[in-house]
Specification:
Number of strands: 8
CATH superfamily: P-loop containing nucleotide triphosphate hydrolases
CATH class: Alpha Beta
Strand content: 15-25%
CATH architecture: 3-Layer(aba) Sandwich
CATH topology: Rossmann fold
Order of helices and strands: EHEHEEHHEHEHEHEHHH
Radius of gyration: 17 Å
Structural class: alpha/beta
Strand order of the largest sheet: 3-4-2-5-1-6-7-8
Distance between the termini: 12 Å
Largest sheet: 8 strands, mixed
Helix content: 40-55%
Number of domains: 1
Shape: globular
Amino acid sequence: MAKILSVVNQKGGVGKTTTSVNLSAALAMSGKKTLLVDIDPQCNATSALGQSPAAHHGLTGTDSLPDSIVETDVPHLGLLPGSRSFHDADVLAETGDRSTARVRKHLDSVMSEYEYILIDCPPSAGAMTETALTASTEVLIPIQCEYFAMVGVTQLIGTIKKVITATDGRLTFGGILLTMYDESLELTREVDEEVRDFFGDIVFESVVPRDVALCEAPSHGQTVFQYAPRSRGAFAYTQLCMEVLQRD
C-alpha cells in the first residue's frame, strides 16, 4: 500500500517542485515503484520530467486513473501530468465532500500499484492544496532558508491541522525540509536553528543546498540525477531519499 505525500508550501520559489521531482526520482531509482502527481496548473513538474501537460487532468474525470499515467525516462517512475485547463483547475479547487472524495477515490484506486505517490501542489494554502492533503497520508513541507520562512508556514500548519482533524488522522506530518541552504550565511544558520527548535524531530537532517544544477536540470526535461549526477543537489536528494526510507 502506497504512502501518499503532498509536497506543499503556500510560498512560491521554495523548492517545492524541485523536491517533488527529485525525491520521487530518487525513490524510484532506489527500486520503489513511484508515481508523481502534478496538480499545479503551471505544470512545472510535468515539464521537468520532459513530458507535456495533459488536455484534461486525470483527477477531474471519471476515467480510470491508470489510463492517464505516463511512463518517464526514470525506471519505476510514473507521472500523472498536470493540466493548464482553467476548467480542470476549477474542478480541482472545488470545495466540499464530493470533490475531495473524487480525488481520494482516484488516488486510492492505484495505491496498491505503487509504494510512493508524491503530489506536487500549487504555491497556495487554498482549496486545491486542501483537496490534495485530504487524499494524502503524509505532508512534506520545503522551507527556504530566509527571513520570512516561518511566517507562511504558520498559516499552512493551520490548514494541515484542519485536514488531520477532518480525515480522522489519515494525514500525518512526513517532515520539513530546509532548502536553498547556504551554510556560509549567518541567516541560514539562524533559520536552521529556529526551525529545528520549533518543529523538533519532524525536520529532516538532510538539507538541500543552493546548486545551479537543480535550477538547470528542468530546462532540459531531466531530473538532477540525469543532468548532473555528481552535483551537490543530486547528493542532497539521495540523502533525503535515504532518510524518507528510514522513517518508514
